[in-house]
Amino acid sequence: METLIINIPDKKSTLVKQILKGLGVTIQENSQTKKSDYKKKLLTVSTWPEEDLKSFEDSRKSFENLSPQQW
Questions:
Q1: Which H helix or E strand runs over 20?
Q2: Does the structure show a pLDDT above 90 at 71?
Q3: Distance (Å, whole) CA 67 – CA 18
């Protein structure tokens, strides 16, 4: 199966869809989301305070200072 994206003038959209469906084409509706929807989602993302990030940095530094034991 092949995917094809075409731009159809608004006035001809219904006619073109009818013809394509008659030919057995599956039409997938375009789910465009608005920028405001993305903004709302981004506003719900939590942020980490600096003190929490500091513990990650300390752990990373400690891990880097480890040296493998020789057998």
A1: helix 13-22
A2: no
A3: 69
